[in-house]
Amino acid sequence: MLNRSGPVKLLGVIAGVVILNIAVLSPGLLDVEIGGVSTLETASGVTLLFISLLVVLYGSYTLLFKAPAPKSARPLTSPEDYAALLHQYKNVKVLKNDILLALDQMERMEKKKTTLTRVLGGRFDPLELSYRKFSSVIAEVEKLLYLNVRGMLNKLSLFDTTEFSLFANTHKPPPFSEKLIQKKTALYNDFFTALKGYLGANEEILLKLDQLLLEISELDSTNYERIEEMPCMQELSALINQTKLYQ
C-alpha cells in the first residue's frame, strides 16, 4: 500500500542526496574526483555514489511502501470516546440494532445519573454519609455499564464483516465443507451471544437504577443503616462486588 505523504518526503531525500554529491564531487571543493589522479579520491567518490544509491533505495521503500507503525489505541476516558468507537460499526447491517441499543443505553445512563444526583441533592446534604454512599454506588454502577461497553468493543474489534458475509450468504453458499461451515456458524453465534449478554447486563443495570430511584423517593428515613437495608442498594452492592472479583 502506497503511503500518501511518501512521494513528497522521498523527493526531499533525493534532493538532499543530489546536493551532497554535487558539493563533494565538484572540482575544487573537497578534492574528491572520480577518475582523477588519486586512487583514494576515486574510491571515495565511488563509495559516496554507492552509499547515495542505497539511501535512495532504502528511502523509497520506507517512504513509499513500508506500512506505517500502528497508532496506539486511544484511551477510553469519556462517554464520547465509547460512542465514537461504537459509531464505526453503526453501518454494519448485522450489528446496527445492537450498536443503536448500546448507544441508547449510554444516553439513558447519563440521564438517570443526572436525575439521581438531583433527587439525592434534594433529599440529603452532600456532606452526609448517606449521600456519599448513594453517590459511590451510582458511580460504581456506571463503571460497570461502561465496562460492558468496553467488552462489546473488544468483541467488535475482532469481527470481520467480509468473512461473515461470505458465510452468511444464503443465496450462494460458500464452497467449504459442511463441518467447517458449522464451526464458523457456531463461532459467529457465540460472538452475537456475547454481544447480547453485554447489552442484557446493561439493561439490567438501568432497570436497577430505576428501582433505586423509586426506593429513594419512598424512603421515610435518612438513617444510614436503613439505607444499607434497601433491597436495590443491596442488589447493586452485590453486583459491584461480584464484578470486582472477575476483573
Structural summary, described in words:
By secondary structure, the protein is mainly α. The protein contains nine helices and no strands. Helix 3 packs antiparallel against helix 4, helix 3 packs parallel to helix 5 and helix 7 packs antiparallel against helix 9. The longest helix is centred in the C-terminal third of the chain and has 41 residues. The radius of gyration is 32 Å and the shape is elongated. The mean pLDDT is 77.
Summarize the structure.
With 247 residues, the chain is mostly helical. It has helices at 6-25, 39-65, 79-87, 96-123, 129-156, 161-168, 178-218, 224-228, 231-246.
DSSP helical segment count: 9
SSE order, one letter for each helix or strand = HHHHHHHHH
Give the beta-strand count.
0
Instruction: Tell me the major beta sheet.
Output: none
Radius of gyration: 32 Å
- Percent strand equals under 5%
In terms of structural class, how would the helical and strand content be classed?
Answer: mainly alpha
Helix content: over 70%
Average of per-residue pLDDT values: 77
Termini distance?
40 Å
How would the global form be characterised? elongated
Q: Can you tell me the residue ranges where pLDDT is under 50 for at least 5 consecutive residues?
A: none
